[in-house]
Amino acid sequence: MKALHIITGLGVGGAEQQLRLLLRHLPAQCDVVALTNPGPVAEGLTADGVSVTHLGMTGNLDLRALPRLTDLIRSGGYDLVHTHLYRACLYGRVAARLAGVETVVATEHSIGTDRLEGRRLTRGVRALYMAGERLGLATVAVSPTVAERLRHWGVPGQRIRVIPNGIDAPRFRYDEARRKEARAFHGVPEHAYVVGGVGRLAAGKRFDLLVQALALLPLDVWLLLVGGGPEAEALRRTARDLGVAARVVLTGERPSLPAPGDHTPDLVSLLSAMDVLASPSPEESFGLAVVEALAAGLPVLYASCPAVEDLGPDAAPGARRVTGGAGAFARALLRLRAEGPGERTVPDVVHRYDITRTARQLMDLYTDALSGSTSEASSS
Questions:
Q1: Kind of pairing between the strands at 115-116 and 104-108
Q2: Under a CB-based contact definition with an 8 Å cutoff, are residues 255 and 11 in contact?
């Protein structure tokens, strides 16, 4: 089987890193096209032996990309096209059909009640999404929560397949040596209590709430934020205004699978450096950072995490939901710290999201799609 994955860009984001990890475990010949911004994940894919093409798209309305993408699909001899993220889904589905490839699936990585991949859900955005969706055979939802949102939009249930994000859990195992190295690299005291946050530094993630909470916590508590984005400078400014800038570290984008030659502490090392992960985002499609933190044996405080909540209250004993603002997170962190460090045990829920299982489910979908027998299924 030969498949082409089309994605909007290959910067360090959850969908992009998920694609690279997935292709390491998917038993199919796969190529990748990035419409724009090839980024560090493209370097990693190339190092893995995956052919990556940068289409050079200059904006959402760069229609010159459509014939280029159509020609690439037609000449590649692909059995199946798999699209990821909004722009790539729109252009990729149309191009695949123009190229004569009828087996087209998509993964919906990030859909909220009023936003799609960070953009506001206007009537026009929704209409374009639904028009493109009809050109595919199936849409993968990364959680039952996302599947329900798709059904609410009007996507027929029989076209939706729930296949969760996956992680390579053994890679995230706690490592004392990497903990010390990561802390030393970023100037974090060895005995500090480190609250971590992982994700894009965008307003919707509410990392400013953690900076505000830090001002309510003892002076030996530090905040380690892993990610890049438009809110980075605003977070630094808030930290300065609250007098906690010396205890806030912004690492920038750090992939879980670093590119060759990158010796900066990666996400795995930074998770070992933390004592707790806090995820204050009020609306998530899956909650990959939470699952990765649980795989590192970390306790987690979260506002929204379908990966945990969709499985019931006892699925992840180390994960606790926190509602409210900075004060609520500060109180929860104080309570958690008072309980002591505990063992870095990995809950059973982590194994449910093993990447090999995700890859196997996706291959089953590919087989069904090629045979014309796609149907609604869960990830149980």
A1: unpaired
A2: no
Q: What residues form DSSP beta bridges with 54?
A: 34
Which two structure tokens, joined as six digits, stand for 377?
């299924």
Q: How far apart are CA 139 and CA 89, in angstroms?
A: 10
Q: Record the tokens describing residue 65, joined without a space.
A: 């990309």
Q: Using CA atoms, how far apart are residues 324 and 359, in angstroms rounded to an integer?
A: 37
| Inter-helix orientation angle 288-295/14-23, to 10° | 60
Instruction: Name residues whose C-beta falls within 8 Å of residue 258's C-beta, 6 or more positions apart in sequence.
Output: 44, 264, 266
Asked if 166 and 21 touch (Cβ cutoff 8 Å), the reply is: yes
Question: How far apart are alpha carbons 82 and 105 in whole angstroms?
Answer: 5
pTM of the model: 0.90
pLDDT averaged over 10-residue windows placed end to end, the chain, 380 residues: 95 88 96 92 93 91 92 97 93 96 92 71 82 92 91 90 95 95 97 97 95 98 96 98 98 81 88 98 93 96 94 85 96 96 88 95 96 57
Please tell me whether residue 215 adopts helix, strand or coil conformation: coil
Instruction: List Cα–Cα distances, 323 to 23, 301, 331, 334, in angstroms.
Output: 37, 10, 11, 15
Alpha carbon distance 171, 173 (integer Å): 6
